[in-house]
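TODO from last week: model TIGR03013 family PEP-CTERM/XrtA system glycosyltransferase.
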Amino acid sequence: MLRISNHYISKVVFSLLFLEVLILIGSFYAGAGLRFFDGEQFAIPKLDHFFMSACIFAAAIVFSMSALGMYQINFQEGLRNPFFLQLMPSFAMGFCILTLVFYLAPDLYFGRGILVLVFMISGTGILLARAMFMKTSRTHFLSTRIIFLGGGSMAKECGELAVRETNYRRYDVAGYVAVPSEETCVPQNQLLHLPEGGSLVALANAQRVSEIVVSVQNRRGGAFPIRDLLECKLYGIQVTDASTFFERETYQIRVESLQPSWLVFGGGFDQSFMRTFMKRAVDVVASISLLVLTLPVMLITALAIVIEDGAPIFYSQERVGKDGHVFRVLKFRSMFKNAEKNGTPQWASRNDPRITRVGNIIRKLRIDEVPQILNVLKGEMSFVGPRPERPYFVEQLTERVPYYNVRHSIKPGITGWAQVRYGYGDTVEDALQKLQYDLYYVKNNSLLLDVLVLIDTIKVVMFRGGR
């Protein structure tokens, strides 16, 4: 895994992205050369902004492919995954983006003849690149050989996570090294035994491993081989904590196995002035722009709500924000009037009977969240962050879910990492799963992660996933 701006990115996905950017830019030049081929030589047109146009074309297509989930690769599906059926909508979306760009900046326009050839060449190149990556993924070329230090329940969970077929990174598990301080939960045939007088680094070299994952729950006492781990690290073998392994592979922070010291000394949690200033500046500019762009949609939505169920149009509700401060979030009303007649807050379920017909539509399209732009302008929310919860549920979840209040250390968001990664949830267990994604965002929040969340939000809205 690569770590860019505190966010883990699969080397496979990064390599594929880099290759496809080169294919898209190269296809742009190849298409232009073919378009102006005079029978003897390929001629590139002399446009002032030709390279800039090529980069914008590549950015538009990559953005569209990302928004449609084409970089969330499932190695288990392999070549059975219909890339062609995903690529066509991506190109159509990219064409719409390019049309908007050319309208705003006509100097960058390069002609329909070139565009048709570029789409044909780049589409073929991307399909071939995807086929090559899927074929390569079936070999050990992209796999990492690892050992798990520990044989208990945590080691078993780490091992199961490592061999999941949906992982972006492939692992070859050499085995487990049990420690005396915990009960063995892994199969006996997968246990590795240190030879008498041997060392952990010798075992690692004999097994040709490049990483050791420390998955021991109890590290107190003399049974924990801290000196051996230091020796492994000095010999160039990567030593990874189980919490970091979970964070890297699931984009979550697992609260069950979390050591408080890991949160304190593990890095992240950037709350610097520059990060806060940049996030607020982006929120203000984006809020004003979106208010202007979505005004027609908001007017149509308001009219539809009044026609079906009358006034009021908006629904205001108390939510818990940064540092535990309570504010009132504004949404389009999607439920019938007096949806909570007994005064007791209820979890919103997937097929909630309290939702109106208009409410069902605007919820699926996320239009009900648009008025929260006003909360962003007021500084109560951000575009990206943990979803704000109602005080009634916060009290319950704080008592039942460890570290729940950590999510209140930053502003809540209209959309968030948990919403695009986990989906719908209406139980305490769902709240725990979402919290683990929220903790990952709070710890690793950056401009890059915000951009990834917004791109994934487009995919969630288009395919009606998430919450």
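Done. Residues 376 and 421 are 22 Å apart (CA to CA).
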